[in-house]
Specification:
Blueprint: H1 2-23, H2 32-54, E1 56-61, E2 71-75, H3 86-89, E3 93-94, E4 96-98, H4 107-113, E5 117-119, H5 125-138, E6 146-149, H6 166-176, E7 180-185, E8 201-207, H7 217-243
Parallel strand pairs: 1-8, 2-6, 2-7, 3-6, 4-5
Antiparallel strand pairs: 7-8
Helix pairs in contact: 1-2, 5-6
């Protein structure tokens, strides 16, 4: 049954993308805020489909911890869903995306208009330098955008051992000199990193209190990992309880 519902969800998401992509084409000629509104409309309908079709409820917590203005956001990354949610949590996020996605109809057009950050994943050090240059241009103090990074670099399975890559986080923290907001989640319990099957349950995205700018890098990195992992582990246990599973099911 989960497989059937998951297949229906795929058609829901793709159908919405085509229909709304056509309907909102005029926003590509309007100010960027109009395009962001259209993208948020799509994501809200996507989340409704998640709930109605697959039984996945999505909750946002910790909004009271969210400072105004520009931010550096460090998220736990477990599912593709994680790249959609920031548009509902933050006023004007910058999401890193694979450069080849720009060739996709609708998806690429709206990403370009909304000024996301396409990268070459195989570019090595040059890619990091480009990301820093773009971030400095788009997230200066006073401009109000929020830069989203994933300290572990890629999607991780729920409950997996942490694998933080400190160099990138340290570089962004130093270059931007902004509050660093940890974003915890348990999304991988319902939307696995691999495969098409979606499992009913309760996905939570929790904004944690920001880490102030200007700390020594070792202290910042230690706090980020400790706080992000503790919150994600707590959400993992909560999500498993909703699903009637235990951690043994993750092995």
């Amino acid at each position: 049954m989960n497989q059937i519902r998951s297949t229906i969800l795929i058609f829901w998401a793709a159908g919405l993308l085509v229909v709304l992509g056509v309907v909102f084409l005029p926003t590509l000629l309007l100010p960027r805020a109009a395009t962001l509104w259209a993208m948020r409309f799509y994501i809200r309908l996507l989340l409704l489909g998640l709930k109605w079709i697959t039984g996945i409820a999505v909750e946002f917590r910790g909004l009271q911890h969210l400072p105004e203005g520009p931010l550096l956001v460090a998220g736990k990354h477990q599912a593709t869903l994680d790249v959609f949610v920031p548009f509902l949590l933050f006023r004007d996020p910058i999401v890193v995306m694979k450069r080849e996605l720009l060739w996709y109809p609708f998806l690429g057009w709206y990403a370009l208009k909304s000024k996301m950050l396409p990268i070459d994943r195989d570019g090595g050090a040059q890619t990091v330098k480009k990301m820093l240059a773009v971030a400095k241009a788009l997230v200066p103090k006073g401009k109000g955008r929020q830069m989203l990074i994933y300290p572990e670099g890629t999607r991780r399975l729920p409950g997996a051992e942490p694998d933080y890559k400190p160099a990138g986080t340290r570089a962004f923290y130093k270059a931007l000199n902004l509050p660093l907001v940890p974003l915890a989640t348990n999304s991988g319990l319902c939307w696995p990193a691999h495969g098409m099957t979606r499992r009913p349950g309760h996905v939570v995205y929790e904004i944690l209190p920001p880490i102030e700018p200007g700390l020594p890098h070792k202290e910042m990195l230690a706090r980020l990992e400790a706080e992000l992992e503790a919150a994600s582990e707590r959400l993992l246990d909560e999500g498993l309880a909703v699903q009637g599973r235990t951690r043994d099911a993750l092995q």
